[in-house]
Amino acid sequence: MLDLHRVRADTPGCLGQAFLDSAGSSLPPRVVTETVITHLRREAEVGGYRAAAERADDLADVKTALAALLGAQPGDLALTESATRGWADFFYSVPLAAGEKILVSEVEYASNAIAALQRARSTGAVVEVVPSTPTGEVDLDALARMLDERVRLVSLVHAPTNGGLLNPVREVVDLAHAVGALVLLDACQSVGQVPVDVVALGVDALSGTGRKWLRGPRGTGFLYVRPELAATMEPAALDLHGAQWTEESGYRLAPDASRFEFWECSVAGRLGLGAAVRYLLDLGIDEIEQSVSALAEYTRTELAAVPGVTVRDLGVDRTGIVSFTVAGVDPTRVRESLAAKDITVTVSGRGSTYLDMSRRGLDAVVRASPHYFNSFDDVDRLVEAVDGR
Ligand SMILES: *Cc1c(COP(=O)(O)O)cnc(C)c1O
């Protein structure tokens, strides 16, 4: 059991409001904010190079901590400025030729889909959409029928941005690998709220972000690349960190996933990410999952009992994302009237998950995403406000 009193005391932002947007940009624990600010101050005193050198061990620990969370090795990770940056760094490096295929899931995140469509245009490859089952997960039978040796990559979203379902991963990986296709997992909404083990899942690459469930700073993210691939793949873009200029017309790639990184970064942000992951590891991801799941289920049950409210979540296995609509009220209006009562939720619009929302005839949903630092009182405040009480 998590010590709710302690984690709330560590989270100044959660006092005095019901903050229910960890799927958007969560509230960092105090240690994260302090880490970032302290480093920025130090940079102002001694310059960025010296300040970074002083924190070399902590900087190395960012990957060590992330690797511990993901069941990976530090060298399998590239630190990026966002989940999308990491996703794109891998995706644009996968060789594609005319007639080859990229499969995407129906709950695909817009940025991934746009990149896939762009590459299809430039290479002559084809993007195909794997349908979902009636309960919302990727349809494994349909996937099996769509897979053949022309498929180069399957893009799978672990937990979609607009609803509470969790997709099966291992089954997708096994099917894809049987025809030699790679699996790139968008774990932006899962890492930090549910256990994610890259070896158990068998994915070829995985992207995640700092600012959501990990409670890290904005402008941080990461990419995991399976070590055999990281050692052989040529990144689409390189700099003097991903490769070394060793002769007039030659360079040598870094031996591991750091070949996908660029040299320059927000050092303060990275240190903050490291602090966030250490904080999470300290609490334990299993405890976090239990707590998030209990809060989210409570939110669904209570909201569903409010007249006019429809909970829109699909999925058998569910996450901390709760999506709903209120009959006759625009989701943006719902968000704004909740904000006026110090209740923070967000709206997920059709443009973020175009295929899924279009299929379900939805323009937008209200998204409430409780994290373990939320109390059941926070949820009660949300439900009462939605109910107009
Ligand atoms: C938020 C989100 C992203 C993008 O994360 P960034 O850190 O903004 O790049 C990608 N995929 C899903 C499913 C998301 O919800």
UniProtKB/TrEMBL annotation:
Query: What Gene3D superfamilies is this protein classified in?
Result: Aspartate Aminotransferase, domain 1, Type I PLP-dependent aspartate aminotransferase-like (Major domain)
If you read the UniProt record, what top EC class would you report for this enzyme, in one word?
Answer: lyase
What's the Enzyme Commission number for this chain? 4.4.-.-
Q: Pathway involvement?
A: Amino-acid biosynthesis; ergothioneine biosynthesis
The superkingdom of the source organism is Bacteria
Which residues does the record list as N6-(pyridoxal phosphate)lysine (modified residue)? K212
Function noted in UniProt: Probably catalyzes the conversion of hercynylcysteine sulfoxide to ergothioneine.
The UniProt entry's sequence similarity note says: Belongs to the class-V pyridoxal-phosphate-dependent aminotransferase family. EgtE subfamily.
Q: What is this protein called?
A: Probable hercynylcysteine sulfoxide lyase
Specify the species. Rhodococcus tukisamuensis
The gene behind this protein is egtE
